[in-house]
Write a structure and sequence with these properties.
There is one protein chain. With about 140 residues, the protein is α+β, with helices and mostly antiparallel strands. It contains 5 helices and 5 strands, in the order βαββαααβαβ. The protein has helices at about 25-40, 65-70, 75-80, 85, 105-115; strands spanning about 10-20, 45-50, 55-60, 90-100, 115-120. Strands 2-3-1-4-5 form a 5-stranded antiparallel sheet, with helices on both faces. β2 (about 45-50) and β3 form a beta hairpin. α1 (about 25-40) packs antiparallel against α3. The longest helix has 17 residues, at about 25-40.
Length: about 140
């Protein structure tokens, strides 16, 4: 599959599942400021947040990848990322270039097909391919 490295827009899609209802308030305490920072970031064109299956998702559209990276290194996003494993049981990200402003459903499909799982076990519901069980040495 060819990887597109240019386009009119750079799209970033993130999907996270919280560990439990008890960790959800902490999740929002850190992600709300990160989302607000994305909305006001230089080069951001659009932001959306939504629920998909059992995930909380964000979809951001940027003028270019450099603008997204500047936001990515910002204080609010870094603070949220430091909490990832404490509050979530699953995380998957995907960034891609496109010439068309994506709908949420188009961005989710791209995330399912091309995303990279950064935390948690594979889940076919999110487009993950199950990883084979590690083989154990046979006893002789």
């Amino acid at each position: 599959m060819d990887t597109v490295t240019t386009g009119k827009y750079y799209v970033s899609v993130t999907g996270l599942a919280t560990k439990s209802l008890l960790t959800t308030p902490k999740f929002f305490r850190y992600t709300a400021p990160a989302y607000t920072a994305a909305q006001g970031a230089t080069g951001n064109i659009a932001c959306s947040k939504l629920s998909y299956e059992t995930l909380y998702m964000t979809i951001t559209v940027w003028e270019d990848k450099q603008a997204m990276r500047k936001y990515f290194r910002g204080e609010a996003h870094v603070a949220a990322m430091k909490q990832l494993k404490a509050v979530s049981s699953y995380g998957k990200i995907h960034g891609y270039f496109t010439d068309e402003m994506p709908s949420d459903s188009d961005a989710i499909e791209a995330w399912k097909k091309g995303g990279r799982r950064v935390h948690g076990n594979p889940n076919p519901m999110y487009g993950d391919v199950a990883e084979p069980e590690p083989s154990s040495p046979s006893s002789s």
